[in-house]
Design a protein that fits this description.
The chain has 405 residues and is mostly helical. It has a 3-stranded parallel sheet with strand order 2-1-3. α18 links the parallel β1 and β2. The longest helix has 44 residues. It is globular and about 70 Å long. It starts with a helix and ends in a 5-residue tail after the last strand. The mean pLDDT is 93.
Length: 405
């Protein structure tokens, strides 16, 4: 129990001061879509939307959050933080099931709790699908391992149910299929992985055949292109900076990796597979912070192994633990939280402007898409979205964002 309390404290530590931040850009779109699709009576329409049916769990959660807490940003961010805490416990559980000794599993979960590389998934509420798909993927693999260990068919069907929930959370859920396939091959149970593979193929085809109505197939967000391999390699390498590299150095220097080669290989497989779905993005040559949340679990196991390799040197291990916590939590406090506050300013200003004028106005300069301003006025100000007019349109007022991102 003391260890679980320590993990909970570490999970909350980097993010506690970010709870009062206002909503940030796409948060308003998330809430608007939840109003459109999140209630049970609206699920039939949700099933017809090729993009948002792949985020169904987050829309249902967001609708429920608004029903309970209204538009209080603290409640939404606290929800994300609670999901992050569950994910930390999931890393502990999954690492133990994969064969990690208790001290390695605990160190992995502790690193995952504070790691700054995936902070966007926790602070930015619009990234809540990343947390949900991680939890569902962890449940899928965990139930699969329990089925392999016990032979109880109920665990197999639990894995299948968790995978369906993962597919309803985010497209990156398909990344778990290669992991299951290799686990199945290792036990010569490859036919058991076929239903998961078939579901993943059908899931992809359902989106592909609806490409004409799928937003991200038409707005340039991603495409099949030759740069995907570079994006994958670049993202893989960047994920390890700096504590992953330090862990690999500790493992190489001590030879500790020889004691757990299978666990290390599983961690690398998890990272590589989790990054693949995001490597077809066109707007960056690396996977954005929020999209590394799933892959970070594999990194956490590598760091957990590296830290455990130093445990015989107690002072060095203690110094390393303090350095990891202070660096990661401090980076979120000092660097990232002010960035998120600045990212919230444009929508805060446009909401205040709309509430003051309550008349049509043009967006003369706005750092995000016009659609975000429209959603901010609709959701944040509670005013008709038609008040927002494109630049150059006739309107009695003009809005220009006063600030820099």
């Amino acid at each position: 129990m003391p260890r679980l309390l320590l993990l909970a404290a570490l999970a909350v530590l980097p993010y506690l001061t970010s709870l009062p931040l206002p909503f940030i850009s796409d948060d308003y779109e998330q809430i608007a879509r939840a109003r459109q699709y999140g209630a049970p009576a609206q699920w039939g329409e949700l099933a017809k939307d090729p993009l948002y049916r792949c985020r169904a769990t987050s829309l249902v959660l967001t609708r429920a959050t608004e029903a309970v807490a209204g538009l209080n940003p603290v409640a939404y961010r606290a929800t994300s933080l609670a999901l992050h805490l569950l994910a930390v416990f999931a890393v502990l559980w999954l690492a133990a099931l994969a064969g990690a000794p208790p001290n390695v599993a605990f160190a992995a979960a502790a690193f995952f709790a504070v790691q700054e590389g995936h902070q966007e998934a926790v602070i930015w509420y619009a990234a809540v699908p990343e947390l949900l798909v991680f939890l569902c993927c962890a449940a899928t693999v965990g139930a699969w391992l329990l089925w392999q260990r016990s032979g109880d068919a109920r665990w197999y069907f639990a894995a299948l149910a968790a995978f369906l929930a993962a597919l309803a959370s985010k497209e990156s859920a398909v990344a778990v299929v290669p992991v299951l396939a290799l686990l199945a091959l290792a036990r010569r149970r490859w036919p058991a992985a076929l239903p998961f593979g078939i579901l993943a193929v059908l899931y992809f085809l359902a989106s592909w055949t609806a490409a004409r109505d799928h937003l991200h197939f038409n707005d340039g967000t991603f495409r099949i292109h030759a740069g995907a391999l570079w994006n994958w390699a670049n993202s893989f390498a960047r994920l390890f900076w700096i504590w992953g590299l330090a862990a690999l150095a500790a493992l190489a220097a001590t030879g500790f990796w020889r004691k757990h080669p299978t666990l290390l290989a599983q961690a690398f497989l998890w990272i590589g597979s989790a990054l693949v779905p995001y490597c077809f993005l066109t707007y960056m040559d690396r996977v954005p912070s929020r999209h590394t949340y799933l892959a970070s679990a594999g990194l956490a196991v590598v760091v957990g192994l590296g830290y455990t390799a130093l445990e015989s040197h107690r002072r060095l291990a203690l110094a390393a633990a303090l350095a990891v916590v202070l660096h990661n939590a401090g980076y979120v406090w000092v660097k990232k939280q002010p960035q998120f506050a600045r990212r919230a300013e444009p929508t805060e200003q446009v909401i205040a402007f709309a509430q003051q004028h309550r008349a049509p106005f043009t967006l003369e300069c706005f750092p995000y898409s016009d659609w975000i301003a429209i959603r901010a006025v609709e959701v944040g100000a509670g005013l008709p979205p038609s008040l927002v007019r494109p630049k150059g349109s006739p309107a009695p007022a003009r809005f220009c964002y006063a600030g820099k991102l």
